[in-house]
Amino acid sequence: MTGPSEVTELLTAELMALALDVATETGRMLVDERPAHLGFGTKTTPTDVVTVMDTKAERLLLERISASRPDDGFLGEEGAARDGTSGVRWVLDPIDGTVNYLYGLPGWAVSVAAEVAGEVVVGVVAVPTYAEVFAAVRGGGATRNGTSIAVSSPSSLAQSLVGTGFGYDSRRRARQGAIIAQVLPVVRDVRRVGAAAVDLCFVACGRFDGYFERGLAPWDLAAGGLVAREAGARVAGLFGAEPSRDQVIAAGPAVFDQLHDVLAPLRPDRD
Ligand code: IPD
Ligand code: CA
Fold first, then answer.
1. Closest CA to 101 of 165, 35, 164
2. Which region holds residue 174: left if phi is over 0, alpha if psi is between -120 and 50, else beta?
3. Mutate which of 38, 43, 96 to test ligand 1's pocket (most atoms within 8 Å of Cβ)?
4. Which residues are CB-contacts of 124 (< 8 A; sequence separation ≥ 6)?
5. I want to staple 73 with a disulfide (CB 3.0 to 4.6 A). Which of 31, 89, 91, 248 is the partner?
6. Mean pLDDT of all residues in the chain?
7. Which atom of ligand 1 is closest in space to residue 219's alpha carbon?
8. Tens of pLDDT along 7-62?
9. What is the pLDDT at residue 50?
């Protein structure tokens, strides 16, 4: 078993190499093997879609990771759940942004994170439609296609481009709509890309100045959250809480507090 304080450089390098390999290969498979007519089913609500390719991509990730590291655990959006014995657990979203993928829009991603004793130490977000791979190692900075990236430093929230996302539940969406109506007048503009992992990577490389969302699952947050942090972002919940399903706010230090303080009285952590 390995604890977080004993995460060796060797182990981290091995996990990173594997994460890069499997995320890239899965992204390529999703592009190359996308059927012309992609059927879909629904999950938590009629708007929460899943395609055969989500399942196929998760299977490929599990196969490749298990072949190299048979004792690791898994948590995947499409059902992978296994306690390993090595102390390493992979947190996987085979397609983050399934609605984009279904409609043939860019900006979906393969999100692969490795945790050691419950802490994310490696994160890779492959975005094939942008030909970009974002990666981070805890304590080692963040990169896009191998080149170092850093958050933006806007002069104020009024000059900030802010990303967000909406859940699949209609009642929650009604509230999220009311909240965004309060945010829109006080920022440069708002974007909804459609994949939380990509939103977080956009904060990391300065394409977004900030991002917030309610309802992220562990696989939406794990890899992108590390990339954003390692690029200099603060990634947190409301009132100093850890980021969670309730709320995730990510921004560089220049505007994090301003974004937080606009959101806090609106209680975006409530339905
Ligand atoms: C969704 C996307 C979306 C976000 C939702 C997520 P999925 O993930 O990340 O941007 O707004 O909260 O559930 O369902 O496409 O993997
Ligand atoms: Ca997904």
1. 35
2. alpha
3. 96
4. 16, 19, 20, 23, 111, 112, 113, 133, 134, 135, 223
5. 89
6. 95
7. 16
8. 789 999 999 999 999 999 999 999 999 998 888 888 888 888 788 999 999 999 99
9. 85
pLDDT tens digits for range 101-152: 999 999 999 999 999 999 999 999 999 999 999 999 999 999 999 999 999 9
DSSP of 227-260? HHHHTT-EEE-GGGPPP-SS-EEEE-TTTHHHHH
d(CA 110, CA 77): 11
Which ligand 1 atom lies nearest to the CA of residue 95?
16
DSSP 42: E
Q: How many helices (H) and strands (E) does the chain have?
A: 7, 15
218 and 240 in contact (C-beta within 8 Å)? no
Q: What's the predicted TM-score (pTM) here?
A: 0.96
CA of 169 to the centre of ligand 2 (A): 16
